[in-house]
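WARN retry 2 of 3 for item q-0093 after timeout on previous attempt; input resubmitted unchanged.
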Amino acid sequence: MSLIKRSDWPSTLGGSLLSDFFDDERFFDSRWLSGRSMPAVNIRETDKTYEVELAVPGYDKKDFNISIDNGLLTVSAEKREEKQQKQDNYTRREFGFTSFSRAFNLPVNTNDEDVQAKYEDGILKLTISKKEEPQGKLKKAIQVR
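OK item q-0093 returned
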């Protein structure tokens, strides 16, 4: 008799047998059930704006909460789902909850009053205007006495 090592068997070290079983995609799509997600973010600076893009597919526009408080931009979302499947002898009901929250410190030259948000094709795009810098200020030399 020989022993065969199985790499897909639940491990007892570093976790529990139940979490190994229930968190496995073979049992359920664990990302849907656990609600764990952190969207990928792209940040771009142009001459007049900062652009923040978050990859958040599967949400609706109404799911997002975006706020700016003392130079801190916070983007969060919650989505609750309920799935029900009925057949002859049984009813299967599943509940799902996903959420995330990301916060970004805005530079001092941002205009908190001019922020636009657009959600399209799973991408949430925020455009934050920069404050206009005063034009015409000349360099002034200071003489030491």
